[in-house]
Amino acid sequence: MKKKGQISIEFLLVIIVSLVILGFSFFIYTEKNFELITTQERLEAKLLANQLARNINEIYNSGNGASIELNVQSKFGFEYILAVKGNSVRVEYGEFYTDAPLITQNTSDFVGVEGLLNIENQFGRIVVSNV
Q1: Are the C-beta atoms of residues 74 and 32 closer than 8 Å to each other?
Q2: Residue 25 and residue 19: Cα distance in Å, rounded?
Q3: Neighbours of 80 (CB within 10 A)
Q4: Domain assignments of the chain as residue spans, ordered by start
Q5: pTM for this one?
Q6: pLDDT in tens, 67-123
């Protein structure tokens, strides 16, 4: 009789230790997954800022009348706000942002969301607008 009680207590102890290890593993997984998503969002925002800045710089260098339609979209479903002001492109995500430099300050101020953008060189002034 005493042996059955001891086996039951040991079995409960093994189950409790297993649940603690499982809970700790789940906590670590959740934390690392959140860090991965945050890093993914930050890197994609930087990629979008650089892509938009590169296209604006190309249109500026191409001269008057040059234009392009650019589809700026998140591949992972994040939401970004795009802004062009002065000599920089800013991509805002959540409460954070990232910048990319432009070679000209002669830009029209633009604030918009992702989607199809028209970038046009109008006599040396870069105009960005939603399509």
Answers
A1: no
A2: 10
A3: 23
A4: 2-130
A5: 0.81
A6: 999 999 999 899 999 999 999 999 999 999 999 999 999 999 999 999 999 999 999
